[in-house]
Write a structure and sequence with these properties.
By secondary structure, the protein is α+β, with helices and mostly antiparallel strands. It contains five helices and five strands. A five-stranded antiparallel β-sheet has the order 1-2-3-4-5. Helix 1 runs antiparallel to helix 2 and helix 2 runs antiparallel to helix 3.
Length: 273
């Protein structure tokens, strides 16, 4: 019995030890699990912290990179804008320079044209002045020629020729009063002479047409004195040796028709028929 008690006690103790050992094992296992869970949790927490730190670091790096990228983009944009501004300024400067050069060139060309125009105008004015001077010299020469011719004829009392020459001289010096004064003098002389001549002709010639022939130098003169109740006129047909023929009425030039009408009325009537 004691043995049985002892055995029972030993068994009980063994069971107790076993239970205690099991409990100890279970506790140890629990503790190990708890420790493992704690460590795992700690590791997880650490991992989460590291992850957050990493994520934060990555976020910061991303933000930094984004900021740097934005800065770079902004710098590039600013540089591009600056380049465009410089390019525009350069282009505007070049455009302005070209415009100024074009304007200057146009002004130079215009100045050249104006200079050429002035030179051309001056040359034309000088040419016109020279032509006028030449014309004045020629006119003066012709004026002197006709005045000399008229004065010689006046001295010889060839008043008709003198008057014609004085009239010709007026064409070349209209402002000179001398030839007009001489023409007036001739007209006065001719009027006086005409009156006297008419009286003399009326006493020397009968009424009608009287023809006379004269020769003077190299000229042949046919003179026809026409006397009517109202008028007395002397017509002359002057035939030069070289063939030229001129007609005069009282010393003034007339046409051949006037000569024929006044001195050959019958021939005019026949030619009309």
């Amino acid at each position: 019995k004691e043995e049985a008690d002892r055995l029972a006690k030993e068994l009980k103790d063994a069971k107790t030890k076993e239970q205690l050992a099991r409990e100890a094992r279970e506790q140890a296992e629990r503790q190990a699990k708890e420790e493992a869970a704690r460590k795992l949790q700690e590791a997880d927490d650490l991992s989460k912290r590291k992850k957050r730190q990493l994520e934060e670091q990555l976020r910061l790096e991303a933000e930094q990179k984004a900021a740097e990228a934005r800065k770079k983009i902004n710098n590039e944009l600013a540089e591009k804008m600056a380049q465009e501004v410089r390019a525009n300024l350069t282009q505007e400067k070049e455009t302005k320079l070209k415009e100024e050069q074009a304007k200057k060139q146009a002004e130079q060309e215009q100045a050249k044209i104006e200079k050429e125009k002035r030179a051309q105008k001056k040359a034309e004015e000088e040419k016109i002045a020279a032509q006028r001077a030449e014309a004045r010299e020629k006119n003066l020469a012709k004026y002197k020629f006709y005045i000399a011719k008229a004065d010689n004829a006046f001295i010889e009392k060839n008043y008709s020729e003198a008057k014609t020459a004085y009239k010709a001289a007026i064409k070349f010096s209209a402002q000179n009063p001398y030839p007009r004064r001489k023409i007036k003098e001739i007209d006065n002389l001719l009027n006086t002479a005409t009156t006297q001549n008419n009286d003399q002709l009326a006493s020397e010639y009968k009424e009608g047409i009287t023809e006379e022939l004269f020769e003077k130098g190299n000229k042949k003169i046919i003179q026809r004195t026409v006397i009517s109740e109202e008028h007395i006129h002397v017509y002359k047909k002057v035939i030069h040796s070289w063939g030229a023929i001129y007609y005069f009425k009282d010393g003034e030039p007339i046409t051949v028709d006037t000569w024929l009408t006044a001195t050959e009325p019958n021939s005019q009537e026949e030619s009309s028929k």
